[in-house]
């Protein structure tokens, strides 16, 4: 029987509409529904770990087995569930904030989402990571604040929360700049700045990602006084072995490193010739002797919106002197200069050259900061010695250089 073109279109439309009416849920449902529960897991074994437990088991032989789930409470009233596919015989229950016994109920579940009878196994987690970290916290005063370190042997995602009682009345707050320290490194370290050099009561708590909080460490601390050094008193001391500055119509002078413009446009930045074949130095006269606490380098924003490129510093040294040899021998053989610190800039994302994440750009925009070792003598003259830039050569580009101390 011949059909007209109109009939053909109508039949085609009805076929498509009928197929489209099948929901995703219907398509994903098993062809055969099995209302019988699967067999139970067997040979259950548990190995207690820090804040968690690893559980192994033997699977039932049901052909329509889909997964195994563990149902438990991390603490009274706080329910948790972990699911493992039928292709494995192990799962880990975690999120425990204590070392108390906990009952885990294991269910086998088939493709019809019918669960087996539960099999119970008792676990008793070892000391959670946030408690281990709290036990090892060390706080040491430094210039303008304090450093916090602790061990994190479980490499959990932890937050160290610093607080201060500004009024001395037991009201604990986080003042501006007093941010949490987040890390999952085996050794956690961070520095809190912008604290006044007066005795105040501080508190420190460790929190994990399941919002378990440690007990509180209370300390009375008096940070050492520091201030940003007055750049208006700085000047250039040009020594014979110092870097040759790129001469672009009288621009790129050293004082652009301390003119207060942290994000300049070209060419108002310090820039040396790109033909340099060895580590380059630039010398600054601070006007008087200072003890240094920290430094900051603001890199230049290159074409394309990149910071971790070209002549921006990657590895460099800071040297100090009070009576520099003006004849300018190589700094490594000049006893009038003392190396104060070596700095290595780390790109937060670790991404390849000319690939920069938002966190990379934020870190660079805010400036790369480094602490000086404690106990240094005071110095009037400093030298920045570039060991390597992000291009892998020696020339330097610095938008702004800042020092703190007293």
UniProtKB/TrEMBL annotation:
<dbReference type="InterPro" id="IPR032527">
    <property type="entry name" value="DUF4959"/>
</dbReference>
<dbReference type="InterPro" id="IPR032164">
    <property type="entry name" value="DUF5000"/>
</dbReference>
<dbReference type="InterPro" id="IPR008979">
    <property type="entry name" value="Galactose-bd-like_sf"/>
</dbReference>
<dbReference type="InterPro" id="IPR033431">
    <property type="entry name" value="DUF5126"/>
</dbReference>
<dbReference type="InterPro" id="IPR000421">
    <property type="entry name" value="FA58C"/>
</dbReference>
<protein>
    <recommendedName>
        <fullName>F5/8 type C domain-containing protein</fullName>
    </recommendedName>
</protein>
<dbReference type="Pfam" id="PF16323">
    <property type="entry name" value="DUF4959"/>
</dbReference>
<feature type="domain" description="F5/8 type C">
    <location>
        <begin position="259"/>
        <end position="403"/>
    </location>
</feature>
<dbReference type="Pfam" id="PF16391">
    <property type="entry name" value="DUF5000"/>
</dbReference>
<dbReference type="Pfam" id="PF17166">
    <property type="entry name" value="DUF5126"/>
</dbReference>
């Amino acid at each position: 029987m011949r059909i007209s073109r109109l009939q053909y279109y109508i039949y085609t439309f009805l076929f498509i509409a009928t197929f489209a009416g099948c929901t995703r849920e219907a398509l994903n449902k098993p062809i055969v529904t099995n209302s019988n529960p699967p067999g139970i897991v067997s040979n259950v074994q548990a190995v207690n770990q820090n804040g968690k437990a690893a559980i192994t088991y033997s699977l039932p032989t049901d052909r329509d087995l889909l997964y195994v789930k563990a149902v438990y409470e991390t603490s009274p009233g706080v329910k948790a569930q972990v699911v493992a596919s039928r292709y494995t015989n192990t799962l880990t229950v975690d999120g425990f904030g204590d070392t108390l016994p906990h009952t885990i109920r294991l269910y086998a579940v088939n493709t019809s989402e019918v669960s087996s009878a539960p099999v119970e196994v008792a676990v008793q987690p070892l000391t959670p990571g946030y408690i281990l970290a709290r036990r090892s916290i060390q706080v040491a005063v430094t210039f303008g604040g304090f450093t916090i370190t602790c061990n994190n042997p479980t490499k959990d995602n932890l937050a160290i929360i610093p607080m201060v009682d500004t009024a001395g009345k037991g009201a604990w707050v986080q003042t501006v700049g007093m941010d949490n320290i987040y890390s999952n490194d085996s050794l956690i370290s961070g520095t809190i700045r912008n604290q006044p050099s007066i005795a105040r009561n501080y508190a420190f708590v460790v929190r994990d990602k399941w919002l378990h909080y440690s007990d509180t460490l209370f300390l009375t601390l008096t940070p050492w006084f520091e201030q940003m050094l007055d750049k208006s008193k700085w000047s250039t001391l040009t020594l014979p072995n110092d870097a040759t500055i790129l001469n672009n119509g009288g621009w790129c002078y050293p004082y652009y490193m301390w003119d207060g413009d942290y994000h300049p446009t070209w060419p108002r930045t310090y820039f040396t010739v790109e033909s340099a074949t060895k580590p380059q130095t630039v010398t600054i006269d601070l006007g008087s002797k200072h003890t240094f606490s920290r430094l900051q380098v603001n890199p230049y924003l290159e074409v394309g919106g990149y910071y971790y490129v070209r002549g921006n510093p990657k590895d460099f040294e800071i040297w100090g002197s009070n009576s520099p040899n003006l004849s300018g021998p190589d700094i490594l053989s000049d006893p009038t200069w003392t190396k104060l610190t070596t700095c290595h800039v780390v790109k937060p994302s670790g991404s390849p050259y000319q690939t920069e994440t938002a966190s990379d750009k934020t870190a660079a925009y805010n400036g790369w900061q480094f602490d000086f070792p404690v106990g240094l003598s005071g110095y009037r003259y400093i030298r920045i010695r570039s060991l390597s830039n992000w291009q892998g050569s020696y020339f330097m580009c610095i938008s702004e250089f800042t020092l703190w101390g007293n």
